[in-house]
Amino acid sequence: MPTTQYKATEIEVGFHPDGYRIDKTASPMNRYTRWEIDSGDRWTHPTPVCFDSLPVSGWLKSDGFDWDRADGGQGA
Asked: Of 17, 19, 42, 56, which is the most buried if we count CB atoms within 10 A?
């Protein structure tokens, strides 16, 4: 079953497989972030980025992230 992909402008909460996240419900520093993805597929070392640096398309929607977890709520 194919997964629906979206444009960055259509995302309220979601992620891009290249290590980007959008969370418009989070604090300003966590709204748009770039992450390193380690060999165990864990997302680490978030860095705030501006919206214009995000990939334009290829986004997946998410129900949310647990920002209090060390891995930023990976799998949330």
From this structure: 19
